[in-house]
Amino acid sequence: MEKTQNNRAWFLVLPVLVLVAFSAVIPLMTVVNYSVNDTFGNNEFFWAGLDWFDEAVHSDRIHGALLRQAMFSAIILAIEVPLGIFVALNMPKKGFWSSFCLVVMALPLLIPFNVVGTIWQIFGRGDIGLLGHTLAAIGIDYNYTSDPFDAWATVVVMDVWHWTSLVALLAYAGLQSIPQAYYQAARIDQASRWAVFRYIELPKMKGVLLIAVLLRFMDSFMIYTEPFVVTGGGPGNSTTFLSIDLVKMAVGQFDLGPAAAFSIMYFLVILLVSWVFYTVMTNLDRQEAK
Amino acid sequence: MRSRSSALVMTFYLLFLMVPIYWLVNMSLKTNAEITGTFSIFPRELTFRNYMVILTDPSWYMGYVNSIIYVVLNTVISIAVALPAAYAFSRYSFMGDKHLFFWLLTNRMSPPAVFALPFFQLYSSIGLFDTHIAVALAHCLFNVPLAVWILEGFMRGVPKEIDETAYIDGYSFPRFFIRIFMPLVASGIGVAAFFCFMFSWVELLLSRTLTSVNAKPIAATMTRTVSASGMDWGVLAAAGVLTIIPGALVIWFVRNYIAKGFALGRV
What we know:
The complex is a heterodimer.
Chain A: E1 4-5, H1 10-35, E2 37-39, E3 45-47, H2 51-57, H3 60-90, H4 96-106, H5 113-124, H6 130-137, H7 148-176, H8 180-188, H9 193-221, H10 225-231, H11 242-252, H12 256-289
Antiparallel strand pairs in A: 2-3
Helix pairs in contact in A: 1-12, 2-12, 3-7, 3-9, 5-10, 7-9, 7-10, 9-12, 11-12
Chain B: H1 2-28, H2 32-37, H3 49-56, H4 58-91, E1 92-93, H5 97-109, H6 112-125, H7 132-156, H8 160-168, H9 173-184, H10 186-202, H11 205-209, H12 218-221, E2 226-227, E3 230-231, H13 233-254, H14 258-262
Antiparallel strand pairs in B: 2-3
InterPro entries (chain B): BP-dep_ABC_trans_perm, MetI-like, MetI-like_sf
Subcellular location (chain B): Cell membrane
Pfam families (chain B): BPD_transp_1 (PF00528)
């Protein structure tokens, strides 16, 4: 659509600007302030320059959390995206069962994050949980509170349970927008199932899949509540991801300076990824408009 | 043949989704003695005690009331400010519009953990700590950008000729917006409201940091079940089930729009 050039439109945007500035810019400035100051309490601050950043960049603790975070995001993306596409391809296209699938699949998305954690905590426990009990019954030694591998497996399966439906729903919406004529043409050409997927369905899903991948990347990159409830970041530090580490540092130990420096770097990473996301997406929008 | 294997795949997937939820419901209908003592797929002695505990104790059920109050406040604020902004983004190009849009997006993507401490200090210093409005405003951080994005996606689909015709017919902007334009994007408003509701409902980190007693959300109240006499698993499970219900009730109405909402109006 051709847009009219009109700078008075700013007045319409003003309420949003004020509100978001209040809840984003002011807190962010506080963080910046902390990140360059040192304090010994009593609201007295001393200029610390870039010391905290220096410390954060060279801290093994943060490197560890970052590495675990990157691994976690990579694993869940590698599982959720193919699985989501696979589920979407198998969903009924219309009728009651299609609605039924949509509703059941959306259900995990609407459960408060800590309840998701609680569900899996209860489900996985060896003494009272169905999963823990079944695994023990077939002779697998499973205990997510003491074994790092089991803790990881639980957190990953929980995330797959929680969010695969998001990928599936988006991919499904992309599939629904493909006109029947495309499939008929493919049938006339005797295209294989794989060819139909590769040359018709996948290109048509490109836009929504991009959104799905990036949403999943962002949300997994700032995951906090679910692993915190299930494992509390443990055993040891094995499931301490970036957000968990940050909250531990800022609220638990009240190390404001390092925590703030850490926050800012964390935020910059997110900003960079958002920018890539935005650029790619607006380019896609423009291509479609042509 | 193909449809049968599809049905099989879907059955497995839906089972995978439902079994943990079933287990939670199962636990909520058992007595604590049965939960820890025996292992059963169905509750042997069906009991509603766990639900009664929650529904008769104000410190429990007020958690739900608090959650609902700040979620509704947040939804109303978010939609009210996002409507004109989304209209501006969908109709006009103005100085800095693309940058502003991008900046809004970054707020949807920023980790709440970064904001937890500064929010705590900000709202404490202006005397809003432990109030519903504080949580509602804090959740605007990610809900307002989301609402703007979703609404903009829906508004783009309304042809501009409608605006022009209305102005020629002598409508003023506010009258046109409320009488003609809003009914046209009603489904978009519904979807945006649903998503604001949902993200405010599921968020815990900020709402827990910003409250202590008076506005404490149900999700934070749930940590109370750990007591000296051990875990009260039954009540914990019942509280979990009760938090799922509001979401489950509204899903049916928006089932065809869920994907569009998650895709920020871009399907």
